[in-house]
Write a structure and sequence with these properties.
nine-stranded antiparallel sheet; about 45% strand; about 0% helix; 1 helix; Beta-galactosidase, Chain A, domain 5; binds beta-D-glucopyranose
C-alpha cells in the first residue's frame, strides 16, 4: 500500500513523500529530495513499532543537513583524495568539500537534488522508482549519468534498494545509501549494546583523513574484528573517534548478492540483516553526530546511530588495484542491497 503527499517545496517545485506499507504493517517513508529514506517503522519482539531511522520532520532540515541522513549518495560515495582522479590520461578536478578531499559526491551531491519519483504496487511488494540525470561536468565528473534508484518494501519484511546507472562518456560511479540506524528507535541514545557481525576478514587501512593508504589489513586480533556477533561498544574506546572504516566483504563470486552484515539489538529484539552485491561496506558509528535536532525534537549525539554503507572501496578512482568504479558507455552500473528485518 502506498500513500503519497507533499513533503515540502523548493523554488515552487514540490518534494513528494511516499509511505510504503507491507502486510506486517512495516512502514517505510521516502522522499524525492535526495531519494532519501526518512523513516522506517518496524516492530520489536513485543510487536511495538518504532522508527529506527534518524532524520528530520521537515524539508528545510534536509536541505541544510550535513550528515547525509537517509540519502542516496553519489556520484561517488566516500572520499576521493585531493578531489581529483585521472581517466585515460585526463585529470578531472572535483568539488573539494572535506578539507582538500571530495566526500559523498561533492557540495551538491545526489543527496541535494530533487529526483523524479514513480510509485508502483505489485502483489507482494510496493515501492518507488527515483530517477535523476546528473549532467556532464556536475561536481567535476565527466559524462551525463542517468541514475535510477528503486526502493521496494516486500511482504518478507525487506527493503530492497536497487541502483543502476548509464553514462554517455567514460566516468566513475559508486552509489550508496546513507541511513543512520538505531534499532532501539531513532531517539534511543547510544548504540553500544547493539551487536554486529560483518562478513569480512579485512579492512582498507586509512590515514588521518580517512583516505585509504592502499594497505589491506586483517581484522583478526584488532578492535575491527566483527567476524562473530560482538557489541559495537566493546572495543570502541580503543579507537580515536569510533568506527569509520571500509570492510572488504567475503564473496564467492564478484557482484553476487550475499550476506554482508547483521545487527541485533538485545533490548528490542530487532534484527537487521544486510545482503549486497557490492564488494565492501563502510561501518560508521555516527562519530560526527553533534547533538543536532532531528525528528520529534530528538538530539542526535555522537554514537547514537550506525551506518552500514554498501559500496566500492573509498578513493577507488585513485587505486587501480581496488575493484573498479569506472563505467563506460554501453555498460550498466548495477548494485542491489537488501535490508531484512526480524526479531529474536
Ligand atoms: C563517512 C564519515 C563521514 C560521514 C558523513 C560517512 O560515510 O565514513 O567519515 O563523516 O559519512 O556523514
Amino acid at each position: 500500500m502506498i500513500k503519497k503527499g507533499i513533503f515540502g517545496t523548493i523554488a515552487d517545485k514540490d518534494v513528494d513523500f511516499f509511505i510504503l506499507k507491507n502486510k506486517s504493517a512495516i512502514e517505510a517513508k521516502v522522499i524525492s529530495y535526495g531519494a532519501a529514506l526518512v523513516g522506517l517503522e518496524v516492530p520489536d519482539k513485543n510487536g511495538s513499532f518504532a522508527d529506527i531511522i534518524l532524520g528530520y520532520d521537515d524539508l528545510n532540515s534536509y536541505i541544510n543537513d550535513t550528515c547525509y541522513h537517509g540519502s542516496t549518495v553519489g556520484r561517488v560515495a566516500n572520499r576521493i583524495a585531493n578531489a581529483k582522479f585521472t581517466l585515460d590520461g585526463i585529470e578531472y578536478k572535483l568539488a573539494a568539500n572535506n578539507g582538500p578531499n571530495h566526500l559523498h559526491g561533492g557540495k551538491t551531491g545526489f543527496n541535494k537534488v530533487i529526483w523524479n519519483a514513480q510509485p508502483f504496487e505489485e502483489k507482494e511488494c510496493c515501492g518507488v522508482v527515483f530517477k535523476y540525470r546528473s549532467p556532464d561536468g556536475e561536481q567535476g565528473y565527466p559524462g551525463n549519468l542517468d541514475v535510477t534508484v528503486t526502493y521496494t518494501l516486500t511482504d518478507d519484511n525487506e527493503i530492497k534498494i536497487d541502483y543502476n546507472a548509464v553514462t554517455d562518456k567514460k566516468t566513475v560511479v559508486n552509489l550508496t545509501n546513507h541511513s543512520y540506524f538505531n534499532l532501539a528507535g531513532h531517539n534511543s541514545g547510544d548504540i553500544y549494546s547493539h551487536k554486529i557481525q560483518i562478513n569480512s576478514e579485512s579492512i582498507t587501512e586509512s590515514d588521518a583523513f580517512l583516505i585509504p593508504t592502499g594497505k589491506i589489513i586483517p581484522v583478526k586480533d584488532t578492535p575491527y574484528d566483527f567476524t562473530e556477533l560482538k557489541p559495537m561498544g566493546r572495543d570502541i574506546d580503543k579507537l580515536d573517534m569510533g568506527y569509520d572504516i571500509n570492510y572488504i566483504l567475503n564473496k564467492a563470486l564478484p557482484m553476487e548478492l550475499s550476506f554482508a552484515a547483521k545487527v541485533y539489538d538485545p533490548q528490542s529484539g530487532r534484527v537487521m540483516e544486510i545482503l549486497t552485491s557490492e564488494p565492501a561496506i563502510q561501518f560508521y558509528t555516527g562519530n560526527f553526530l553533534n547533538g543536532s535536532t532531528g525528528k520529534d525534537d530528538a538530539s542526535y549525539k555522537k554514537h547514537n546511530a550506525f551506518c552500514l554503507e554498501t559500496q566500492h572501496y573509498p578513493d577507488s578512482p585513485n587505486h587501480p588495484e581496488f575493484p573498479s568504479v569506472v563505467l563506460i558507455p554501453g555498460e550498466v552500473y548495477r548494485h542491489l542491497t537488501v535490508h531484512k528485518f526480524s526479531v529474536l
